[in-house]
C-alpha cells in the first residue's frame, strides 16, 4: 500500500465529523430555514411596495405580531408538553371587558393593568382545573371556554363598546421607548428572553420536554406532571391577559369581538416556529423568527391592500402546510428507502 493512500485515510475518516459539526447542524435547522424565509419576504416586500422600507412603517409593522407572540411563547411550552389552549383570544376579550368595566368606575392605569393580568390568570387557572385535576382533554375544555369567555363579554357589552381609558394607559400600546422602538417591542424582547431561559436553561424547561415526549416516564422520573401543566396553563392565561392590556391600550376601546380569530394565528406562529403539534420538541428562537415571518407577511399584504379574509385564508393554509410538511417529508423518505 502506498504512502499517499495511508495519508489520505485520516482525512476521509474526518469527513463525517465535519458534516455532523454543530455549525453544519445549525445550517440545516428549521430556525435557519425560517430566517432565510424572513429575509426573502423582507426583500420581496421592499420591491412590492415603495412604502415598506419607511422606518416608521416598519415600526408599525411590529404591532402585527408582538401581542400574538407574547401568547405564542407561553403556548409553545404548553404544546411542547402535549396540551393546547384555544381560548386565548376569548381570554383577551374577557380581560379587556373587565378593564373597560373598571374604567366606568374610575379605575386608573395601574388598576387596569392588574385587572387585565388577574383576569387572564384566573381564566388560565379555570382551564387548568378541568385539564389537570379533572383529567379532561385540553382541546375539548378550551373549545368550551373559548365560547364561555367571549359569551360573557357579549352579555356584558352586547353591541356597545367601552371607551374613555386614561391617557396614561395608551403608553402600553401606543408609546415609544426611543425613536421608532415601541413599548410593545421592548416587552416582546423581555418576554422572549424570559421564556427562552425558562425553556432552555432551567429544570422546569427540561421537565416540559420530558412530559411532552413521555408523560408516564416523566411521572416515574419524579416529575410532578400535573403541577407542571397547571403552571403552563397559568402562564398562557397570564400572557393572554398581558396581550389584552397591550391590545386594548393600542385600540383605545373594548368590544366583545376584540381579538376574534387570534387563537388560530397564535397556534400557527407556534407550529411555524418548529414546535411539534404533538408535543416533545420545539424552541423559543424558532417562535421568535416565526413571529417576524408572519408579521412581515401580513404587513406586506396590507400594504398591497389585500383584504383581511384573504390573509385569514393564507394563515389557515400556512397552518395546514406546516403541520403536513413533516409528514409528507417522512412519506417521501420512506418511499425512497422502499
UniProtKB/TrEMBL annotation:
Annotated keywords: Cell inner membrane, Cell membrane, Membrane, Transmembrane, Transmembrane helix, Transport
Membrane topology per record: Multi-pass membrane protein
Species annotation: Jannaschia helgolandensis
Protein name as catalogued: Autoinducer 2 import system permease protein LsrD
Highest rank taxon of the organism: Bacteria
MF annotations from Gene Ontology: transmembrane transporter activity
Physiological role: Part of the ABC transporter complex LsrABCD involved in autoinducer 2 (AI-2) import. Probably responsible for the translocation of the substrate across the membrane.
Keyword flag Signal: no
Spans through the membrane: 32-53, 113-132, 139-157, 177-199, 230-252, 258-279, 286-303, 309-329
Pfam family, one: BPD_transp_2
Subunit structure: The complex is composed of two ATP-binding proteins (LsrA), two transmembrane proteins (LsrC and LsrD) and a solute-binding protein (LsrB).
Record localization: Cell membrane
PANTHER family tied to this protein: ABC TRANSPORTER PERMEASE PROTEIN YPHD-RELATED-RELATED (PTHR32196), AUTOINDUCER 2 IMPORT SYSTEM PERMEASE PROTEIN LSRD (PTHR32196:SF71)
Cellular component, GO, one term: plasma membrane
Lineage of the organism: Bacteria, Pseudomonadati, Pseudomonadota, Alphaproteobacteria, Rhodobacterales
Keyword Cell inner membrane: yes
